[in-house]
Amino acid sequence: MTATSIDAVSARAAAIAPSATLALTARVRALRDEGQDVIGFGAGEPDFTTPEPVCSAAIEALQGGMTHYVPVPGAPETRAAVADLMRTRNGIACTGDDVIISNGGKFSCFLAIQALIDPGDEVVLPTPAWLSYKPMVELAGGTLVEVETGPESDFLATPEAIAAAMTPRTKLVIINSPSNPCGTMYAPEQVRALADVVAAHDRAWIMSDEIYDRLVYGGREHLSLGSLEQVADRTITINGLSKTWAATGWRVGWACAPGQGGAVVKAMTRLQSQSSSSITGFLNPAIVAACTRTDEEVEAMRCAFEQRGRLMFEKVSAWPHVTCPPPGGAFYVFPDISSTFGRTSPGGRKLASAATFAEALLEEASVAVVPGESFLGCGGNHVRLSFATDEASITEGCRRVHDWLEALQG
Q1: Same domain for 275 and 231?
Q2: Of 23, 189, 234, 315, which has fewest CB within 10 angstroms of its CB?
Q3: SS3 for 409?
């Protein structure tokens, strides 16, 4: 008797849901291919081109014959360049031996969790949060403990709330600042307070996802948890090229863990050696170029995002009965649209959730947003909009949403 396709799939694989944000991006692309004028606020992807020095370095390496294997954690000079960046910009006392380069920041997070978590371990995470953390923890056999936050605190967890969530089984605390999906970030004094809480638990580690660390606005200061003495050797800092360098398709991420974190880097390297091996060889010089030769380009993109964020916040704040914290980092706003629940859309759809809101908005106004249910935790009253797009699209898309909201019935 032939097994069904469901029987053939492991329970572990069957339990994992696909990425909702990637699915939305694919749907918007398909609608545009059909000729529809869709404005997409869904993708967490810069619309800029990767800076020229990065592209040129990869092309030169490829044309120069760099098409062979490189060491699993990355070429020594690449890891050294990343470590130098982490020391000078993030204040993390590290060397190249404390760094592993992987196929994207997402895979860096996955490897770190796999290297740290055993069945029965608990992982504390402030929510709303990026949707991929939970399946990563579950694949490692861990239990996710969510610390719910809300707009009244700009979606930032207090030290007291983190402390209350921690138990003797807590092995890891995940902090993502600036935040996806909320677009808010912890101030330096809040980062220090969180570090003190974790430092009081001898068993607990931190995974600090800082993929948006250069994209901060309004004069705010980003402080890396890995730079703080009390948790420096128990923090794995995640970063990469995707957001800051507009290089999502390059799939380059890294993890940095000095001190006793070196054992975690070695474990991640063993895992990587049996899964993806190294990143693409000729990308190594491109990473060096990104770390050493692109400050001007990175700052220009940051300034553009800051202006776009101000524009989107201004437009969203004018939507009737919608509230929204201002964006402090990354390139997202996360407005509360629950005032629309129970009302009827211009196309006759009953709005009962962020998901039905987003579906009706796409079908009736040709604007794509990500419903809050797509993320972990208490985001069901919200939708995420990305301002990683041009100002004309922001203005037109927000106008469409405003007019659609004005036409709601009930």
Answers
A1: yes
A2: 189
A3: strand
Output the tens digit of pLDDT for each of the chain's 410 residues.
Answer: 455 555 788 888 888 877 777 777 788 888 888 888 899 998 889 999 999 999 999 999 999 999 999 999 999 999 999 999 999 999 999 999 999 999 999 999 999 999 999 999 999 999 999 999 999 999 999 999 999 999 999 999 999 999 999 999 999 999 999 999 999 999 999 999 999 999 999 999 999 999 999 999 999 999 999 999 999 999 999 999 999 999 999 999 999 999 999 999 999 999 999 999 999 999 999 999 999 999 999 999 999 999 999 999 999 999 999 999 999 999 999 999 999 999 999 999 999 999 999 999 999 999 999 999 989 887 789 999 999 999 999 999 999 999 999 999 98
Which CA distances in Å does 116 have to 108, 136, 168, 173? 12, 12, 15, 11
Secondary structure (DSSP) of 293-345? H-HHHHHHHHHHHHHHHHHHHHHHHTSTT-B-PPP-BTTEE--B-GGGTT-B-
Q: Which two tokens stand for residue 10?
A: 């492991």
Q: Please check whether residues 327 and 372 belong to one and the same domain.
A: yes
Measured between alpha carbons, how far is 122 from 166 in angstroms, rounded to an integer? 8
Report which of 321, 350, 322 is spatially closest to residue 336, judged by C-alpha positions: 322
Residue 117 and residue 69 share a domain: yes
The answer to whether residue 108 sits within a structural domain is yes
174 and 80 belong to one structural domain:
yes
